[in-house]
Please model this.
Amino acid sequence: MEAIASLANGFMDLFRAGSETFVAWVTGIIPLVVIMMTAVNSLIKLIGEDKVNGVAEFATKYTITRYTILPVLSVIFLCNPMAYTFGRFVEEKHKAAFYDAAVSFVHPVTGLFPHANGGELFVYMGIAAGITQLGLPLGDLAVRYFIVGVIVILIRGIITDRIYAHMSGKK
Amino acid sequence: MYQAVTIKAGKGGFGGPLTLIPTEIRNKVVSITGGGIHPIAAKIAEMTGCPAVDGFSTGVPDNEILVAIVDCGGTARCGVYPKKRIFTVNVLPVGQTGPLAKFITPDIYVSAVDESCIELAEGNLEVKKEISSAPKTKEQAKAEVAKMNEGKPKNLATRIGIAIGGVVNKFYAAGRETIDITIKTILPFMAFVSMILGIISASGAGDVIANTISPIASTLPGMLIVSFICAIPFISPVLGPGAVIAQVVGTLLGVQIGLGNIPPQYALPALFAIDAQVGCDFIPVGMSLGEAEPETIELGVPAILYSRVITGPIAVLVAYVFSIGLYS
Model:
């Protein structure tokens, strides 16, 4: 009888550790994320998609803005996956590069704007949880993640653009 | 001659039954399942007499798609086609989830489909026509109501009231969307990852991970290799769906950072190392959302996949440079 009881306890312990993690996440992460997401979602609804469209049309003209401002705006305002619809402002030959830039920003954006990709928060949150556990502030990491994200999507946009041009030239 | 088929939901599935009636234009069975024709797509193509197309390598204009076959775990693909009002068959048991959940309705979407769910459509297809004309009359009714209200002048108080109501409604809708995504995607993810983490730490497998992942993730060459592997063109589309793998690996790395096995400043390059494949599974769908031509998509898929092999490691290098001075 005791053997069975201790076996049952061991079995329960297997899940107790998980339940502690779960409670820590639900109480530690969800309240802040919910309030942030609600605030930014409200702001976006108040501004309206139409006003962003004007900026988007302007941003598509220059290489640098096409792979920085345009994808950043689209991801923040339309979120994953509707952000890619901003590809309609982009010339046909740049559409692949724009998609590459936009999709590469859906995780760097989550540090500061979790609403933009609520379904995939844990790429950032998972690593950030470790930083929190060490008692370090998250702001620095979130800001740097965002900045490096913008640099990376610019590089990615330009390189994909070149590769695409090379391939379509061959064809 | 094309055949109409009826597809119902499988065990644990959602939506349907859908009746697919191919026409001269709308007659492509498009398989968007990370490359290749899914057996379900092949089966539907065979029964309807329509061609099956690999949507990952070949672009198809939306108006030619009879049905889209997806293997989406619930993030994006399962909602994109229903939003465009294209019939969608998901081979995985996924219901109304993800950011586009509100478009996933039983009249356009069916999931958990296996071969036994597909049958030749029976009887008179005119029934279907009647159903599809029903929403139109509803819209007509709405238009009539709007027209009736148009003529009436509104006084100031009413207009202010409407304006305030509009703003409050937007806040409320924002809150509702947030809670929706929290319940439908964030909480389920937390539940499944905390279960895995719990089992790993309680069973002692955590030490194995600490001894294998930590040394790789705490050096620059290690992370460059990880990003390169994630970006290999035939691996990256497989790693992509829902960013589930990146999220689980991110969480495992977070645990190691918390334990002090990986220095905290490596968090930044690690975020890019585990994410070189981001969106590689979604290229044709994402580009078609941007209204790209089918030919553009055909070239765009390999262009992006090759580009990642170069830009994946570059991203890690940039992040490494920017991590200097972080948490020190």
The first strand of chain B starts at residue 5 and ends at 7. DSSP finds eleven helices and eight strands in chain B.
